[in-house]
Amino acid sequence: MFAQLFAVMAPVLIGAGLGFTWVRLGHDFPVPFVTKLVFNIGTPALILASLAGAEVDAQSFTMTMLGTLLVLAVMALATFLVAPLLDKPWQVMLAPMMYPNTGNMGLPVVLYAFGQSAFAFAIAVMVTVSLVQFTFGIAMSSRSGRPLRTLARTPALYAIAVALTLLLTETELPLWLDNTLELISGFTVPLMLITLGVSLANIRARNLSAGVGFSVIRIPLAALLAFIVGHLLGLPPLAQSILVVQMSMPVAVFNYLFAQRSGREPEYVASLVFCSTLLAFIYLPMLLAFLL
């Protein structure tokens, strides 16, 4: 079991470590460019490449997306209980409570732990979190946010629509297009991991104890909620496990960027991101050992 868990976590740790070391050695890394590349090209290609030939029915996929929305909604409500416990405004705590790192960290962990058969469910969770984060999240972090415009400009949304159409009609992509998507999508997960390491290297976390305290509250709560929601919706066991794992991921790096943008205690949020990510290498193996 240890060898299996190490095989899951080692690529994640090494990939993020490469990005962390690269920046600490003084080399440049164009985070905005890479983020746009991954979000606008890599992720849509990954969605189509993974879902077009996936052995997953459209209903299970959409129900997993619904389950993710329900967990996010309950986590948002839970913010109003957690914020007073940590003596912080709910506006500061909302994003870290709601948005886990289902992309940079979640996708690789699911891929190596559960295999390609589970990857479609991981994408369902990741895309749902991203859509909410870049619509509702932007609206909350800026008065001038335009969530509908942002939603309309999200390539992943159209990729999901095409992929679900292919699943429902049992249509296969032409071989040339399938090969192209497979090739392009190949850079997505490695760049996600490297960018995660780069982002952690650039974050200045000062209040580490606060990050640990927050993680002790958020992670078990998110895992429990995901398990309950998955059970109530009647998700397939594999989809339910993926929902639990994905929603238990550490705080997404984008929450720190949103905190900077809105001026809502970015240093505190940086501590939440940094500590929860480091703790993930401790609690994720235990969670995976329970689920596998």
Automatic annotation (TrEMBL):
The chain crosses the membrane at residues 5-25, 37-54, 66-86, 106-136, 156-177, 183-203, 210-232, 238-258, 270-291. It comes from the Bacteria. Pfam families: Mem_trans. GO terms for biological process: transmembrane transport. It is found in: Cell membrane. Its main location: membrane. InterPro entries: Mem_transp_PIN-like, Na+/solute_symporter_sf. Keywords: Cell membrane, Membrane, Transmembrane, Transmembrane helix, Transport. It is a multi-pass membrane protein. One of its GO terms (cellular component) is plasma membrane. The keyword Protease does not apply. Belongs to the auxin efflux carrier (TC 2.A.69) family. This is Transporter.
